């Protein structure tokens, strides 16, 4: 066994056609627009988005409606709620805002409580959400998913990126 020759690796031909796996886009994406998005908008809210809204002294639901010019339903997952509860007494205002009856609670069926993974998984499965976050790492992950707009806070107001003109919202 020690004396046996190692198998020789074939050199790849640079002129040969390279095969690669391209993920299929869902049928809800018509050209570049997500047809599942429309008023009333369902907005997945991240923990830091609530905290930054408090720091910027913005009313969450009203500012969302001002940004999108339509009715908005903020949604909060069990993982995000658990993350806010773990932050402790210092973030009790954020917890009170998250428990607002205007927020829709979304139950999580997966294992673990890492909120970023939860939001990315939910948005990948269902393209009907806008993700509200200030976290740069989460924004980078969501930008890779086609057809998912991102809401963020800049200059004490809400902004949205990747939102087409068709839905009545401004394009930035």
Automatic annotation (TrEMBL):
Keywords: Nucleus, Ribosome biogenesis, rRNA processing. It is found in: Nucleus, Nucleolus. Its main location: nucleus. The keyword Transmembrane does not apply. CDD domains: PIN_Fcf1-like. One of its GO terms (biological process) is rRNA processing. InterPro entries: Fcf1/UTP23, Fcf1_PIN, PIN-like_dom_sf, PIN_dom. Residues 41-140 form the PIN domain. GO terms for cellular component: small-subunit processome. Pfam families: Fcf1. Part of the small subunit (SSU) processome, composed of more than 70 proteins and the RNA chaperone small nucleolar RNA (snoRNA) U3. Belongs to the UTP23/FCF1 family. FCF1 subfamily. Part of the small subunit (SSU) processome, first precursor of the small eukaryotic ribosomal subunit. During the assembly of the SSU processome in the nucleolus, many ribosome biogenesis factors, an RNA chaperone and ribosomal proteins associate with the nascent pre-rRNA and work in concert to generate RNA folding, modifications, rearrangements and cleavage as well as targeted degradation of pre-ribosomal RNA by the RNA exosome. This is rRNA-processing protein FCF1 homolog. It comes from Struthio camelus australis.
């Amino acid at each position: 066994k020690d004396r046996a020759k190692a198998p020789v690796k074939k050199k790849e031909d640079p002129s040969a056609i390279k095969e690669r796996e391209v993920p299929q886009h869902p049928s809800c994406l018509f050209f570049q627009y997500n047809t599942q998005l429309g008023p009333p908008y369902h907005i997945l809210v991240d923990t830091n988005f609530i905290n930054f809204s408090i720091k910027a002294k913005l009313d969450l639901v009203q500012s969302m409606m001002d940004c999108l010019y339509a009715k908005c339903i903020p949604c909060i997952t069990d993982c995000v709620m658990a993350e806010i509860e773990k932050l402790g007494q210092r973030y009790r205002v954020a917890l009170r805002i998250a428990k607002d009856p205007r927020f829709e609670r979304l139950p999580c069926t997966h294992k673990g409580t890492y909120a970023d993974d939860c939001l990315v998984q939910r948005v990948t499965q269902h393209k009907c959400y806008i993700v509200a976050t200030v976290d740069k790492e989460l924004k980078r992950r969501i930008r890779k998913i086609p057809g998912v707009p991102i809401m963020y806070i800049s200059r004490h107001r809400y902004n949205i990126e990747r939102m087409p003109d068709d839905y009545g919202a401004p394009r930035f």
